[in-house]
Amino acid sequence: MNLAPAVPPPSLSASDPAQLESGHSLWGDAWHRLRQNRLAVAGGAALFVLTVLCTSGPWFLQASYQDQNLDLGATAPGAAHWLGTDTLGRDLLVRLLYGGRISLGVGLSATFVALTIGVSYGAIAGYVGGKTDILMMRLVDILYALPFTIFVILLMVFFGRNIILLFVAIGAVEWLTMARIVRGQILSLKKMEFIEAARSLGLSNRRIIFRHMIPNILGPIIVYTTLTIPSVMLLEAFLSFLGLGVQPPMSSWGTLIKDGAEKMEEFWWLLVFPGSVFSLTLLSLNFLGDGLRDALDVRGSKD
Amino acid sequence: MPDPILQLQDVRTHFPVEHGFLFKRHLGTVKAVDGVTLSVLPGEVLGLVGESGCGKSTLARTIMQLLPATGGSVILEGRNLTRGSAAEIQAVRRDLQMVFQDPFASLNPRMTVYATLAEPLLVHRVCPPAAVRARVAELMETVGLAPRYMRKYPHEFSGGQRQRIAIARALALNPKFIIADEPVSALDVSIQAQILNLLASLVRRMHLSMVFIAHDLSVVKHISDRVAVMYLGKIVELGPAADVIERPRHPYTRALVSAIPVPDPDIERRRQRIVLAGDPPSPLNPPAGCAFHPRCLFAQEKCKAAVPPLVPAGPGREAACVRLDEI
Question: Are B156 and A207 in contact (CB < 8 Å)?
Fold first, then answer.
């Protein structure tokens, strides 16, 4: 997207001895408030650690997620296999880390799809308004009314089971709420005098939307994004649980939990470890989202 | 007499009131601006007064082409804006700028003063990118702000300072014409005079023309050469500022003038004030004939008959009242 020339920061040349007083941006203030929130910081740290472990962990382990050892069978956690092995003798830690890649990957990429579609769609509907807005939002209502599971099952039946399709299917459903949120925010922003001022300065619509409106609604967008990631991960887990998502021998946290649930009476570790890691991730995302909402809520702060 | 820089000819801005979507039921029309004709000379300040809801701000936005006129024409230096293409309007933007009412809402809270002022310069390529910083500093000095604050954000300034930033933004493109929509009504009284003086001196120094909107004649009196009084979408009186305020002709103007407090408690206590009864009528369903007659002290049966036109009422003056000669 080729936005009109971005405004470069003023260069502090030596030719100008007058000192410039730097200001407190609203972002700076929000960052400061976020750091005061211990739960949010803890959530952010936990997510960071989990992400690093899942992305780089498998490189340091010899075993692969599909290496079986049928003679070994299911073993309880111990020195050789820290989190134990499943009935096929596969190392649970390895499978958990690989599964994390899938789950976090689905979470992030499907959310990204939802974010891109939802923000542009909602912004255009809200900014253009009138009949365009009515038509665009009625389409959203119609899509909302379609049962998600049936939609995904149909996609899977027509196009075959495919990880990429899973991202797209989840993203295609999650953008609806984002579009509604963004449209509502844009509608209320559109009447603000600084948007009228931008129009009277003769700025292009694209510039007004992307430089004047979206930066002012990034707060709700960011917050909703952090809340979308867990719901997307839950969807993936749900689909995998139904057997529509990730296919064996690959693992995702959803499939691990499903397998663990089947065997939990004999081999508790197969459910407890994937379950705790998944819960920890969801909790961290929710804490981080809550913290961001509080930090970015300008109404509660000085103005 | 020089040619006017801005001419409004029978400008109308009507809003349909509709119900339902796709199949709309037409419920009526709000005639926010209903047949305004006036002109502004180069270097002149025209004060536009009227109570809330009389269409002042709608007229300002119609002139600015922020709202489409439903009738009539807005002509700036011979260019008809209401019939202009998008590109023509874009070109006119450089000559026509606006200062908004609320300095807390008219500045983008996520942009520094520098970004706010540099944006129009860069988008319209007013000056080479290397000169932008100097030009921003110059603009800030013009409106009485220290350039060292250019990296601060709007929330770090007071209302008066913010209004100065908004004025600087309006001046960035070197316009010829400024519309100030109640630029001081959101400010503390102590700050109002500063902003008024700033606007008055800028108009003089930069040879600007201005439409200055207020709901209060005492604010308009100091800054305007001429005054137009608006009631329910129409101009009811027009004339030189001092003359109109000393000898108002239209009954509505008389009421507005009598609302200006006299800074002498003895006179203030004894003088008779005209207090208008009731609210202005709904523009959706205006009274027949003269829209002011239900609240007018001098109303007679003939006031309900027809809408009175603006007629000459003394040198350089016009008023819209059928009983001008009697009252």
Answer: no
Q: Give the number of domains in chain A.
A: 1
CB of B123 within 8 Å of a chain A CB? The answer is yes
Q: Which has more pLDDT, A212 or A253?
A: A212
C-alpha distances in angstroms, B311 versus B12, B38, B59, B240, B300?
Answer: 19, 13, 21, 15, 19
**What are the Cα distances from residue A215, in Å, to A178, A280, B123, B254?**
15, 31, 19, 48
Judge whether A115 and A225 are in contact, CB under 8 Å.
yes
- Taking CB atoms and an 8 Å cutoff, what residues of chain A touch B133? 10-11
Are B227 and B245 in contact by the 8 Å Cβ rule? The answer is: yes
Task: For residue A133, give the chain B residue with the closest CA.
Answer: B21
B66 contacts A134? CB cut-off 8 A: no
Longest CA pairwise span in chain A (Å): 78
Could you tell me the residue range of the domain that residue A283 belongs to? 29-55+89-296
A14 in any annotated domain = no
Distance CA B187, CA B203 (A): 20
pLDDT in tens, B169-226: 999 999 999 999 999 988 888 889 899 999 999 999 999 999 999 887 888 888 899 9
The ranges of chain B with pLDDT < 50 are: none
What the block records as the tokens of A273 is 């470890």
Task: Determine the Cα–Cα distance for residues A279 and A298; give it in Å rounded to an integer.
Answer: 30
For residue A23, being part of any structural domain is answered with: no
Find the CATH number of the domain harbouring A118.
1.10.3720.10
A193 closest CB neighbour out of B93, B106, B136:
B106
Q: Is B23 exposed, middle or buried (0-12, 13-18, 19+ CB in 10 A)?
A: exposed
Of B98, B106, B112, the CB nearest to A23: B112
- For the range B198-202, what are the long-range contacts, defined as Cβ-Cβ under 8 Å and sequence gap of 24 or more? B198/B143, B198/B144, B198/B164, B198/B167, B199/B99, B199/B167, B199/B223, B200/B45, B202/B142, B202/B143, B202/B167, B202/B171
Is the CB of residue A97 less than 8 Å from the CB of residue A56? Answer: no
Residue A207 resides in a domain: yes
Note the pTM of the prediction, 2 decimals: 0.81
Whether the CB-CB separation of B47 and B14 falls below 8 Å is answered with no
Q: Does B102 touch chain A (CB under 8 A)?
A: yes
A291 located within any domain? yes
Residue numbers in B near A214 (CB within 8 A): none
